[in-house]
Amino acid sequence: MTPGGHSAPPHVAAGLSTRALAALIDTVVSVAAGLLLAVPAIAIVIVGGTWTRRPDGTRVLESVPPAGLVLLALAVAALVAVPAWNRGIRQGRTGQSLGKQRLGVFLLDRRTGEPLGAGRGLMRWLSSIVLAVPCLLTYLWAVVDSHARTWHDLLAGSWVVRR
């Protein structure tokens, strides 16, 4: 039931290939955000850094311009903040990350048919990282699950659907 007491509308689970493509789009967005800051940072370090040559002929970076370090720190922060916002907060509030929006699919609460909310969205995103990094079994599980749900979907009580 939805908060207003109505039954959640029927939904069709999004297929695994659609979910994977949405995840790829979201990854490209996140990496692009980091690269927008990292590329100029690296250029500043290479061009503005102080380099010395060792007796064996190798070059060693002796000092780095502060602007390069700041941009590198911002690039790393973007690589965390953008997916946290897109896959956690935005998707939790609206039901769609940028990738899911592009493909017309939604992340919804299994019971209510409503978006999860920012807190549960962030929890789902973080659990996807924890479950994916040590083992890809969470994604293999989606292959055998009748609704293509991953373990982080099961933990969050969510599923990805087409409306």
UniProtKB/TrEMBL annotation:
It is found in: Cell membrane. GO terms for cellular component: plasma membrane. It is a multi-pass membrane protein. InterPro entries: Pra-immunoreactive, RDD. Keywords: Cell membrane, Membrane, Transmembrane, Transmembrane helix. The chain crosses the membrane at residues 21-47, 67-85, 125-144. The keyword Secreted does not apply. Residues 14-157 form the RDD domain. This is RDD domain-containing protein.
